[in-house]
Automatic annotation (TrEMBL):
Entry superkingdom: Eukaryota
UniProt keyword annotations, A-Z: Membrane, Transmembrane, Transmembrane helix
Transmembrane region(s): 9-37, 526-547
Organism: Exophiala sideris
Name the record gives this protein: Fibronectin type-III domain-containing protein
Length: 575
């Protein structure tokens, strides 16, 4: 090789190594240090990613990693209920369904499931369950099943799609008033795609929804999009889709299904920009939006403005009012409007008209290229919007006034998929009583306590048993309020105790649970002190000795000795 080439390669290697070193220093040293030094995160710096793309926190008494959220806007009326998220992404730590309190503190996180979506509280046979999808995910599709956890976080039901090669998809799992489940299935079928200018023997993503009897797992109803909706109704531009089995073409993208009191299904399809009503016999009764829209817009185009949307729900079936999440974007190649929004629309079926009642825009006019949700909170008469691909959730008055907004990762970095939650929900009714006892761990004279998923704890009581006592009788030592996921007690002044346990108290002072007993051998501070004095003494002696030798050599050796050639010159020093 020519020397010039070698020199160039060396320069490249040095530059790349330098850049990598700089990156790792910033990412793994400076950012965590910065986040650690800031107990309250500044919202602007947070959104820019200065504390990391998704600031996390770890605990001593639990292995879970929790989110560190920031509050962008706050109103006291939002201080009600819990927030339900499924954070995933390259910076979001171990994925898992997560419950936060209204202030953004972690209440529950489970890390044993794979990728999860759609965590929410749903009612089945008069009882509340925590429901979510769990499985494997490719791009925007999933293959898995649906879990229903009881109030102790045990799996009470696992619901699966019915049919050969039919797997539950991540987009929908809705328990109806008839105690049945609605779910979506995306499966690949061979199809004639010549109407799209593609191969006549091509591959299509069939979009199916099923209604399942939860108690028996029996299939009650099934609807396949391609049997009712023409392939040419889609807006999705994907020149490569449809030629290979591994890359089928998804023209419809069904992402929400709900059932009304007449037994009709309300469905949202992202790639056709349509919200449709399907009868119990499978017939399409009406279509709002898309290429064959049947409604006249009374709001001058603002009501039919939605595109690439998610999560269509009846707000008032009787009044014909529905809500949806309008993405306005289906990835970089399919961008319609400047920002995403929640929408409330009123339909009139006699006159076939639609009217925009309210819209819900985030403080930063966030764009969500995918995912997102809108939920009505009946307890407070608020609307709750999850920004899907953008790690944020907001709460509004029904009329669209923004009340609160919280971020769970840096929103400016959201295009890089650092942390997302498919949907975000809020519920004031969830009560969690974990089966496991509260977790305690002592680390360096501090006792840490947490109880993953316990919602009713308001205070922790530290109890201790005397070292000298034979019967290990516990007495109350201290009581502190529970504010975050983990709290701690200092043990420094409790040297006469050798066993500790912590008791969880509810708001009436009743005991909810009790940790296991941890034994602790008090380490006298004197030992540490003596050890420190000895260690410093040793360091000082070595330094002093070295200094003395140097001094002697400098003043007795030959003149003009260079520091650099110390080794060389010392050999010549006369004894
Ligand atoms: C945390 O993880 C360690 C090692 O994986 C395990 O031994 C320990 O029991 C876990 N602790 C908790 C509280 O889950
Ligand atoms: C239909 O439109 C007409 C004229 O705009 C209006 O008078 C009537 O009340 C509408 N029908 C309903 C059911 O709202
Ligand atoms: C929206 O509703 C809230 C609470 O109901 C009210 O305080 C506010 O003034 C309303 N804003 C508008 C623009 O009507």
């Amino acid at each position: 090789m020519k020397p010039r080439l070698i020199r160039a390669l060396v320069v490249v290697a040095v530059v790349v190594t330098g850049a990598l070193l700089l990156f790792f220093t910033v990412a793994y040293l400076l950012v965590p240090l910065f986040a650690w030094l800031s107990p309250t995160l500044n919202p602007t710096l947070y959104d820019l990613g200065l504390y990391g793309a998704c600031p996390l926190q770890t605990y001593v008494s639990s292995n879970v990693t929790g989110l560190r959220t920031t509050t962008i806007q706050w109103d006291e009326s939002c201080d009600n209920g819990y927030v339900f998220l499924t954070p995933t992404g390259d910076s979001a730590g171990a994925p898992g369904p997560t419950i936060l309190d209204s202030q953004g503190e972690v209440v529950w996180k489970a890390e044993g499931y794979q990728i999860t979506t759609n965590l929410k509280v749903q009612r089945y046979k008069g009882q509340d369950y925590l429901t979510f999808w769990s499985g494997r995910k490719w791009g925007s599709l999933g293959a898995g099943s649906y879990y229903m956890l009881d109030s102790s976080y045990r799996v009470a039901y696992q619901v699966k799609a019915v049919g050969e090669n039919m797997f539950g998809d991540l987009h929908e799992f809705k328990i109806t008033n008839d105690d049945t489940a609605l779910l979506t299935v995306y499966h690949t079928v061979d199809a004639d795609l010549s109407s799209l200018g593609k191969a006549s023997s091509g591959w299509l993503t069939e979009n199916t929804f099923q209604e399942i009897d939860i108690s028996t797992g029996e299939l009650l109803f099934e609807w396949r999009a391609s049997e009712h909706v023409d392939l040419t109704e889609g807006y999705m531009w994907n020149p490569f889709g449809g030629y290979l089995r591994s890359m089928p073409f998804d023209y419809y993208h069904l992402n929400s299904v709900d059932k009304d009191s007449h037994g009709n299904y309300l469905i949202s399809a992202r790639h056709t920009h349509t919200i449709s009503c399907v009868s119990p016999t499978g017939e399409i009764l009406w279509v709002l939006g898309g290429k064959h829209n049947q409604f006249t817009d009374l709001s001058g185009g603002a009501a039919l403005d939605f595109s690439w949307q998610h999560d269509a729900r009846w707000w008032s079936e009787k009044e014909g009012i529905l809500t949806l999440f309008d993405n306005q974007e289906g990835g970089v190649l399919n961008r319609e409007g400047p920002y995403s929004k929640g929408m409330m629309l009123k339909l009139d079926f006699d006159n076939c008209t639609v009217e925009l009642l309210h819209s819900y825009v985030s403080l930063q006019e966030t764009r969500a290229p995918s995912q997102g949700s809108v939920q009505f909170l009946s307890e407070t008469n608020h609307m709750f919007v999850g920004w899907g691909h953008s790690p944020a959730y907001s709460e509004y008055s029904v009329n669209g006034t923004l009340l609160c907004e919280q971020h769970f990762a840096a929103t400016w970095l959201h295009v890089w998929n650092r942390a997302v939650s498919y949907r975000a929900f809020k519920s004031a009714t969830w009560v969690g009583h974990p089966k496991e006892p509260p977790a305690v761990k002592i680390d360096d004279q501090t006792l840490y306590v947490s109880w993953n998923g316990a919602t009713e704890v308001v205070a922790w009581e530290l109890q201790g048993a005397m070292t000298e006592a034979d019967d290990y009788e516990f007495s109350e030592l201290d009581v502190i309020d529970k504010e975050g996921f983990e709290e701690s007690f200092e043990l420094t002044d409790l040297w006469e105790y050798s066993r500790f346990r912590v008791v969880a108290l509810d708001r009436t002072g009743q005991i909810l649970g009790q940790s296991e007993v941890v034994s602790y051998h008090y380490e006298s501070g004197w030992w540490r002190f003596i050890f420190a004095v000895l260690a410093w003494g040793l360091v000082f002696t070595i330094c002093w000795h070295g200094y003395k030798r140097l001094w002697r050599w400098k003043h007795t050796g030959a003149g003009g000795i260079k520091w650099k050639s110390y080794e060389l010159q010392t050999r010549r020093i006369p004894k």
